[in-house]
Every structure is written in C-alpha cells, then in structure tokens.
C-alpha cells in the first residue's frame, strides 16, 4: 500500500509540475514573490539574508512541506563556482489547509532566511543567489529567481532587490528563529508501534496552556525513514494537552532496504526534530528527540486518548490576524467603529486646544451667511481628511519597507515633535496678539488674519488631526487594529472614516448653522478667551517639550530648542514693538533658525540615560519593572499576579488613566495588599519588540493594559480601565 501511494504521489506531482510549468511559461508571475538579498552582522557573526515577501494569499513551503508541495531550494555561486552556505534555521512555519483537505507547512507574507558567511566573501564582484520555489494559492506555480550582486568589505549589495527591509526588522526576525533548546521536562514523547504503522504520542503538563492559532504543537522536520501524518490534539479536564502522529515506516524504499526492526531496536539512534509551539510559555523553538528503540503498546495509548476531548486547532480565532479573511463581511462594522472613534476624539484632551480654537471661530462666524459658515467648516474638515490620508500613506509606505508602525508613530520622531513645538508656540503668540498673518496686499485687502480665513480653517484641521494621535479613544483601537493588518485600500478607508468622525460635528453645523445658536454671541469677552486659548497652547508646548526630552535624551538638544523658543518669542515681539523691523529680523531670525536647526541635528543620547519614564513613574510610589517578553513569560509561568502598562510620554489618554486609576491611593493599596508585580512597556521611542507584541494581541497603539492572574492567564483589559475592572481581572478584592 505504501509503495502504491508513493508511486501515485510521484506521478501526481509530476503531472502537476509539468502542467504548472507550461502554464507559468505563458504568464509572468514574478510579482507573486519579491526579494531582497543583503548581509548583516549580528552578535559578531556575519550572515547572508534572503528577505522574501509573498503576495497576499500566496505561500511557499517549509523544509517539510506536509501532504504536498516542495521545499524552497537555495543555490549559491561565487565567481561562477557553486558553494554551500549553512542555514541558521528555517523560519517558524504556518499550517495551511488547502483545497481537497491537504495539509501543508510553509511561509506567507514577509519572512527571512539566514545563512552563515565566512571571511572568503569579504570581497567578491560576482556572487549569485539562485532560488527555486513553489508558490501556491488556488493553483501552484513553480518559479525561480537569480539575484546577482557583489561583496564589498564584507557587505553584500544588489541592484535586483525588489523590496527593502529595515535592519531592525531583520534583527528581530533573526531573534525569532526557532532556535534549538533542551527538551522541556513538561513535554513527554513516546515512540511506539501501532498495528502495522508507527505512532508518536506526547503529553504536556502545566496549567494555563494556550495553543497558537492554526499551528501544530509539534511541527516535524523531515526525518528519514519516517513520514509523519497529521497531528491530532486532545485535552483533559485539567487543561493538559496531548497529541499523536501516525507515521509510515519508509525503510523499504531505502537502498539498501531497512526493514522495521522486529525487536524494536534501531541500528542507530534516530533523532526527530520539531518546531515546538510551546503552549506553556507561548514561545516557538526547536526541540530534538533522540530515540534508540520503540515500544509496541500503541493501541493502549489510543484507548487512553479516546477518553480525552479532541481539540480542533485548524481554524483561527477571530482577531486581528484573520481579519484579512473577513474584510468583505466585517469592513462595514470596522468603518462604523472608526467613525465613532473619530467622533469621540473631539472630546479627548489631546485635541481640546485646537477644537476650542475652532469653536471660537464658530462663534466669530455665527453672524455670517450660511454659505460662508459651510465653507469655513468644509475647509476645516478638508484639513482633517487630508492629514488622515497623509498618515495612511505614510503607514502604507513604512509597512512596505518592513517597519513596525502603530498609532501615534510620528510622535516617536524627534524631528516631527520639535516641528510641532514651534508651530504650536507660534500659534500661541498669534493668540496673544504679537502678530497677525495678512493676505497679500496688507491693509488694502483688509488685514485678514489667517485664523479667520479658509486657510486657517484648513490648518486647524491639520493640527487637530496631528494632536489626536496621542489619544486612542474607545472604539478607535478596534478599527485601527483592523486597519494596520489590512490591505492598502482598507487602511485608507479606515483612516478616512476616522477623519469623518473627527470632523462630523463641524460638517453638521456647516449644513445646519442653526445648531450653533446655543453658543454665546460675539463680544469683548472673546479677547479674554483668546488669551486663555493661547495659554492652553503654551501648555501643549510644555507637554511636547517633555516628549522631545524623552526622545532625544540630550541636555544639549534641550538647551538649543529652549533657546530657539526664546528667540522665536523675541523675533515676533520685536517685530511688533520696534519700528526698525528689518533690523529685528536680522538680529533675531538668524540665531532662531540656527538654534532650531541645531536642536534637531544634535546627536541623540541612545545610552538610555535620558529622561526615563519608568523612573518618573516610580516617583509616584509604585515599583515598576521594565516590560520584556521574558519578564512577562516568567510571571506567567510562576502564575504571579501582574499588572502590565504599555504607555508613552506623548499619550494623553495614558495620562488620564494614570490620574484616575493607576496613581491613586486605592490602586497602590491593591498592589501592596495582593503583592502585585508591575511591568511597564515604554513606547515613547520606537520599539519594534513592543510594537510587534501589541500587534499580536490585536492592538496597535497605547495605552494598552494587561494583567496576569493567579492561574497564569494573560488577560487583555484594553485602552481604558477602572480599578474594579483591574481587581476583577486579577481575581482580588
């Protein structure tokens, strides 16, 4: 039977390949897989890196392709001569159930292969990488690519690269390879004969086990002379998992033939290799199981397994990782969430200064015609929508380059924050009456201030959008998670609907001006309110300076930017008060521009000795510990009560939650009485590890709160919290 199956498989694969090859010759499928070949140095070792990006919905195959498929092959040539490079590890595979109920293992989306380099490639003007792969969706297409390049001083470069992956992402992929570890004590494996076949049984002990979606617990590498069938998973009442593989013994097809030993002892020990998706630690790593003999009690194992509950792990749970498959039916729901989230942003503290300015403008325009009121609000809305489109475009571009991005990503840029400091500071000076922007022609055209023009409305919309990103309003997190994991079109749709929500109140008053009649009438009181609004903008500048300080970690850069702000003030003050405005410009503008430029070009302090958020948080009386996945997993394994806070200096919603919940005496009492550990994830600066982990949990921004209960369960609380909610999740009073 095995011989017949092997012959049929060979014939079937041959027919498929010949058919697909003929089909592929007629069509250009080169865009199904894009490549970048580069080199990198990690931990004092040099590696050749092959970065691949599959077209959405398509996959290639792992070292063990499963029921069908062909593993990707790599061939290298230096100066025309074939050479062999050792792969570090195959990336962790995904499990696919293809048409006809065919189970395969492979790779999708973005992934990388790493090969050890040695010093012989220090310089080479003719290096070649030859890829042979089978890429599949509804059909399978055999393809190959040859990437040529050169080594110069140990660094590889090629003009044939289709994509560019950032160095930080490459290092992260390298660190996530399934490295070999010692077989954990809680994983027990047994090899036994089962009728005419072989079987491998295993069980995992320990509480709080969680399976990875659409993944085997054990994914077997190819191991001759065995052929693994499908993994079956079971669970007992305590939550322990059990698994089994039926296997074919293919020794009869070897040369010389190797019959299955009747006494159960192999000629030489056989080593099985697996990628272990550990349900206890939630990590993926490689384990080896060496066996010199096998038992003959497979039927008794099968009888025991029949008393357990089967676990179907082939379907993914509904979360951000599978929204691509649901986008057609779920898109209207997420667009609604985006609209509601944008609407709620209007009352969030991060945008209140600019929203207040816009309301101030509404009062000023309340006596104008309906058409002019509509135009003012329309241009404000256009500013909002244009900025959201620009943000969406930036996110699409960064994702295409392999960067990890999330909501509020631009506030992780010192250059952007410093620019916003000056823009908002100048707006505040405008409100304090130090200057007015005038239209061309000056008094001839009426000295119209920019804040009262359509240009001013548009700029107000831009600023409202930029300042909204430190906030993650309720409903918005759901929509953003969907957007950041979706296609380019849906990213733009989600962001447009957030913009519609943010601008909806003003669009509504534009269509129905009577709605603003509840606002007070214009009068002298507005001059005093104008100064108050200027003060709110100054406070916004103070907040942004704190963010800037945390990003640059440099006292020198802070000195420059503060000095530039002082000169900016005197520039506008002297223009207002001095008669010789040209001299004021020369005297003040040049040092202002110099100091502003120097503040953003000063080398950043990357030593971590800058303004530490965790130290600031400790001053509130709580002993925070820096979040890492290892620190979190350790507490999960120990079943230690833990509260996890992902935050950033630029996150206003985080500050509100801290004021109302985290920094209260009641929260501190709860932590002390129940010996709760506190982990802090600081996302003020760009941190790929935090960004990637939050995305895996269905979140793309901060705040984000989690707890670990006394059973070792990791529980997501979301973006807003209450003390009662935290206590309930922790299981304490």
Automatic annotation (TrEMBL):
UniProt membrane topology term: Multi-pass membrane protein
Main localization (coarse): membrane
Listed InterPro entries: Cyt_c_assmbl_TM_dom, DsbDN, Thioredoxin-like_sf, Thioredoxin_domain
Residues covered by the Thioredoxin domain: 593-733
Places the protein is found: Cell membrane
Protein name, entry field: Thioredoxin domain-containing protein
Family annotation (Gene3D superfamilies): Glutaredoxin
Keywords from the named record: Cell membrane, Cytochrome c-type biogenesis, Membrane, Signal, Transmembrane, Transmembrane helix
Signal peptide: 1-24
Domain of life: Bacteria
Organism: Halobacteriovorax vibrionivorans
Transmembrane segments: 333-357, 378-396, 416-437, 458-485, 491-520, 532-551, 557-575, 582-600
Lineage, uppermost ranks: Bacteria, Pseudomonadati, Bdellovibrionota, Bacteriovoracia, Bacteriovoracales
Pfam hit, one: DsbD_TM
């Amino acid at each position: 039977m095995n011989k017949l199956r092997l012959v049929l498989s060979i014939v079937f694969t041959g027919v498929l390949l010949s058919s697909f090859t003929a089909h592929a010759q007629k069509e250009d499928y080169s865009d199904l897989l894009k490549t970048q070949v580069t080199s990198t140095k990690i931990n004092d070792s040099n590696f050749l890196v092959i970065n691949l990006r599959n077209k959405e919905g398509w996959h290639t195959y792992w070292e063990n392709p499963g029921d069908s498929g062909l593993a990707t092959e790599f061939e290298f040539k230096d100066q025309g001569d074939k050479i062999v490079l050792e792969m570090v590890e195959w990336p962790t595979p995904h499990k696919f159930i293809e048409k006809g109920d065919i189970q395969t293992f492979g790779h999708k989306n973005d992934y990388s292969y790493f090969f050890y380099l040695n010093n012989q490639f220090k310089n080479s003007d003719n290096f070649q990488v030859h890829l042979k792969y089978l890429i599949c969706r509804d059909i399978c297409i055999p393809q190959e690519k040859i990437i040529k390049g050169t080594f110069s001083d140990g660094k590889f470069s090629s003009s044939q690269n289709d994509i560019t992956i950032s160095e930080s992402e490459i290092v992260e992929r390298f660190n996530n390879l399934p490295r070999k570890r010692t077989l954990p004590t809680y994983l027990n494996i047994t090899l036994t004969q089962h009728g005419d076949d072989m079987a491998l049984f295993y069980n995992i002990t320990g509480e709080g086990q969680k399976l990875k979606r659409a993944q085997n617990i054990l994914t077997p590498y190819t191991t001759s002379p065995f052929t693994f069938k499908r993994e079956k998973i079971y669970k007992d009442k305590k939550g322990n998992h059990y698994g089994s593989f039926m296997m074919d013994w293919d020794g009869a097809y070897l040369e010389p033939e190797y019959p299955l030993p009747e006494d159960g002892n192999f000629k030489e020990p056989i080593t099985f290799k697996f990628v272990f998706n550990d349900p206890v630690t939630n990590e993926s790593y490689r384990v080896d199981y060496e066996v010199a003999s096998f038992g003959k009690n497979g039927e008794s194992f099968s009888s025991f397994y029949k008393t357990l509950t089967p676990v179907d792990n082939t379907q993914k749970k509904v979360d951000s990782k599978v929204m691509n498959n649901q986008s057609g039916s779920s898109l209207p729901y997420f667009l609604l969430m985006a609209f509601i989230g944008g609407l709620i942003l209007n009352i969030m503290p991060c945008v209140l200064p600019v929203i207040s300015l816009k309301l101030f403008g509404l009062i000023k325009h309340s006596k104008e015609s309906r058409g002019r009121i509509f135009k003012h609000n329309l241009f404000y809305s256009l500013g909002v929508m244009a900025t959201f489109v620009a943000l969406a475009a930036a996110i699409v571009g960064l994702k295409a380059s392999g960067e990890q991005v999330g909501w509020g990503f631009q506030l992780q840029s010192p250059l952007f924050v410093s620019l916003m400091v000056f823009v908002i500071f100048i707006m505040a000076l405008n409100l304090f009456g130090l200057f007015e922007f005038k239209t061309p022609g000056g008094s001839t055209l009426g000295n119209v201030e920019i804040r009262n023009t359509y240009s001013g409305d548009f700029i107000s919309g831009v600023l409202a959008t930029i300042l909204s990103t430190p906030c993650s309003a309720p409903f918005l997190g759901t929509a953003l998670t969907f957007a950041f994991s979706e296609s380019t079109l849906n990213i733009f749709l989600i962001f447009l609907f957030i913009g519609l929500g943010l601008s909806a109140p003003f669009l509504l008053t534009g269509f129905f001006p009577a709605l603003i009649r509840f606002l007070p009438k214009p009068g002298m009181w507005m001059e005093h309110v104008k100064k108050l609004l200027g003060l709110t903008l100054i406070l916004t500048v103070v907040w942004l300076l704190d963010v800037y300080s945390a990003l640059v970690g440099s006292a020198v850069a802070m000195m420059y930017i503060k000095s530039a702000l002082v000169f900016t003030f005197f520039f506008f003050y002297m223009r207002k008060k001095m008669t010789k405005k040209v001299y004021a410009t020369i005297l003040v503008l040049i040092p202002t521009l110099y100091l502003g430029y120097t503040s953003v070009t000063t080398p950043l302090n990357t030593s971590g000795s800058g303004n530490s958020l965790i130290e600031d948080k400790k001053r509130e009386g709580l002993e925070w510990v820096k979040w890492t996945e290892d620190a979190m997993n350790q507490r999960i394994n120990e079943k230690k009560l833990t509260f996890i806070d992902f935050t950033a200096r630029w996150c206003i919603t985080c500050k509100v939650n801290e004021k109302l919940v985290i920094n209260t005496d009641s929260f501190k009492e709860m932590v002390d009485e129940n010996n709760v550990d506190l982990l802090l994830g600081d996302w003020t600066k760009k941190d790929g590890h935090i960004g990637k982990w939050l995305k895996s949990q269905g979140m793309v921004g901060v705040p984000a709160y989690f707890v670990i209960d006394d059973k070792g369960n990791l529980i997501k609380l979301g973006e807003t919290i209450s003390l009662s909610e935290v206590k309930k999740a922790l299981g304490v009073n």
